[in-house]
Amino acid sequence: MRTRRTVTTLLVALAALIAATAAPTTATQAATGAPYCGITWGSADKTAGALSSAPLIDVRTGRHDCHDRVVFEFDGPVTGYSVAYGETYTEGEGLPLSPYTAGGALLRVSLRAPAYDDEHLATVPYRTGEHAANVLRYQTLRDVVFGGSFEGYSTFAVGVRARLPFRVFVLAGPGSHSRIVLDVAHQWQE
């Protein structure tokens, strides 16, 4: 009788130990889930390209099934950018834009091209601190604020709902123009 009780106790303890060891693996698999829409971009800093003299001429946004998009269009070839989560400061003055930008997280967008022409006249219709796009009814984007242009660099604060995966890439065209595209996913996983 005593042996049976000891064996039963050992079996119960062994079953509990196996269940405790297996549970984190199952929970981890459930927590990670499948990538949302197959998106594997991540939220780490993204930087590429060199400085260009082709001026910024347009900023527009778009809604897609899996992400929201910001497009920066230039009058000539541009490949340089740096995009990361964090505080964004105005070019030339160094004032933080977070108090003026809607969203739970802020993407700091530095474009390696000016927002003015060879005569130093603005090539975009907004001033430092002004909202550059209407993102009403967007799932992820909350704001796009112009941070100014100084010494060949143009800055934007892009407010998003939360820290989410994003990607940045360059497109040629239309014509001799080029575009830097920022996509921000609607969520991390399905």
Unreliably modeled segments: 16-30
Largest sheet, described in full?
5 strands, antiparallel
By DSSP (H or I, 4+ residues per run), the number of helices equals 1
Strand order of the largest sheet: 1-4-5-7-6
Multimeric state of these chains?
single chain
Shape descriptor: globular
Helix and strand run: HEEEEEEEEE
Mean pLDDT: 87
Estimate the strand proportion.
25-35%
Helical fraction equals 10-25%
User: How many beta-strand elements?
Assistant: 9
Structural class: alpha+beta
State Rg: 24 Å
Distance between the termini: 53 Å
Structure write-up:
- The chain has one helix at 2-32; strands at residues 46-48, 56-63, 67-74, 81-85, 105-111, 141-150, 153-160, 166-172, 178-185.
- By secondary structure, it is α+β, with helices and mostly antiparallel strands.
- It has a five-stranded antiparallel sheet, with no helix packed on it.
- The longest helix is centred in the first third of the chain and has 31 residues, at 2-32.
What would the keywords be for this entry?
single chain; alpha+beta; 5-stranded antiparallel sheet; globular
In a nutshell, what does this entry contain?
The chain is built from 1 helix and 9 strands.
Break the fold down into its secondary structure elements and pairings.
Layout: H1 2-32, E1 46-48, E2 56-63, E3 67-74, E4 81-85, E5 105-111, E6 141-150, E7 153-160, E8 166-172, E9 178-185
Antiparallel strand pairs: 1-4, 2-3, 3-9, 4-5, 5-7, 6-7, 8-9
